[in-house]
Design goal:
It is a single chain. Helix content is 45%, strand content 10%. With 503 residues, the chain is mainly alpha-helical. Helix 19 packs across helix 21. Its EC number is 6.1.1.17. InterPro entries: aa-tRNA-synth_I_cd-bd, aa-tRNA-synth_I_codon-bd_sub2, aa-tRNA-synth_I_CS, aa_tRNA-synth_I_cd-bd_sf, Glu-tRNA-ligase_bac/mito, Glu/Gln-tRNA-synth, Glu/Gln-tRNA-synth_Ib_cat-dom, GluQ/Sye. One of its GO terms (molecular function) is ATP binding.
Length: 503
Amino acid sequence: MAGQRVRTRFAPSPTGYLHVGGLRTALYNYLFAKRMNGEFVIRIEDTDQSRKVEDAEKNLISSLEWAGIIADESPMHGGNYGPYVQSQRLDLYKKYCQQLLDDKNAYYCFATPEELEENRQLQLKQGLQPKYNRKWLPEDMGGNMPESEIKKKLKEGVPYVIRMKVPDYVSVWFEDVIRGPIEFDSATIDDQVLMKSDGFPTYHFASVIDDHLMEFTHIIRGEEWLPSMPKHLLLYEFFGWEPPKFAHLPLLLNPDRSKLSKRQGDVAVEDYIRKGYSSEAIVNFVALLGWNEGEGSEQEVFSMDELIERFSLERVGKAGAVFNVEKLSWLEKQYIKTRPVDVIVEGIKPVLDEELAKRSPEMPVERITSDDYLAKVVELMRERVAFEHEFVTFSSYFFFEPETYEEKTVAKRWRPDMPELLGEFSKVLEASDDFTAENIEAQLKAFVAPRELKPAVLIHPLRLVASGVSFGPSLYHMLEVLGKETVLRRIARGIERIRLPEP
């Protein structure tokens, strides 16, 4: 393998959504390939047709591209190859399976599902690890089944699978890039099915064939595939092929350190996309689930380019990585704080369009959809939103009239003389030609001083009539962005609608 250009792959099965663990596997393969100036390829492993889900392949690719993980052999990079699909390569697998049969490294097995289950239960009762009992292993391969019986079954068209014959009493050893040397005893390895009765190869067989033919230099995948390593390595040995280097990633864990599962929260990338997390935050977060830059580094926010520059398999740990949603949410806020205003503006326009399709604003549409207005809203709310869509959904009062007013705030802040006070202050605002935050603040203080009132007496009710809620950005800057006409209209509406609760 010396001198070969680094090639990695992500090989998902089209059985549903893209799991966050799958995203991490794809990301690490992508980062490693790019760090080494190599190539990253996607292969769809759809040999288990019974589990195939319609549109799953499309959704997998879409989620990866959303995250910025694009295969080199892809139409998006000017290629016309990818993704590779195993169900389109069946003749290849049959060819290599026949080679194993000819070399006496594989054999036909006509055992029925009932026979296999009976054998399994018997071994469990005996305290043994369930393995195929080799009933159909031919005599010329060390078994007891006459060749004539095998030929008879084939002639009769009896359904069969093809199994790999695992050598007796050999040690299977390899050096894992992350975990170091790992050794397996062949006595624990079952005669793995290579070709199923439907003519499709198993994952184990097809992946080895493809990994060799596609010239992958490194196989980076989850540690759940470690028990399959001896089967794969034996296949490489049978064919006389040099195996690639392997790196098995640590498990993703729930906060209670159980294996990450849907029972304890969302595990699909699409779930987090729907919630509003950005691709930058998710990629950054997933990259840190098992990898770290090393001692002395305190950086936690990385761009994709920075991850490519600094990623190494040597810095991937062996221990399981805890999936902490709070950390993901923190990262999202960091990106919102630093993302260019014009990028956020373009990002929230579709959200605003959706809201405008549901209800009509009293402010001119052309005003609230303008880049200038949206930029002002972004600057005011940047420190207060958790997701980009919240510039619209959490701050809807910048676009639509308040439909309700917080009852607790009304009970606490609304005085019997508030309609009169707000009415008089409204006249002050209306007479002013300077509707800036600084002037509004000065006018409010000048208004309450001779009445021997504290500014808070008017600040809280003014925020309430303007936004419907008791929290938000600086009141004076909020009023400035809303504009004089809108503020005066909302004051009048609040005076008309807000009533103190009956004692």
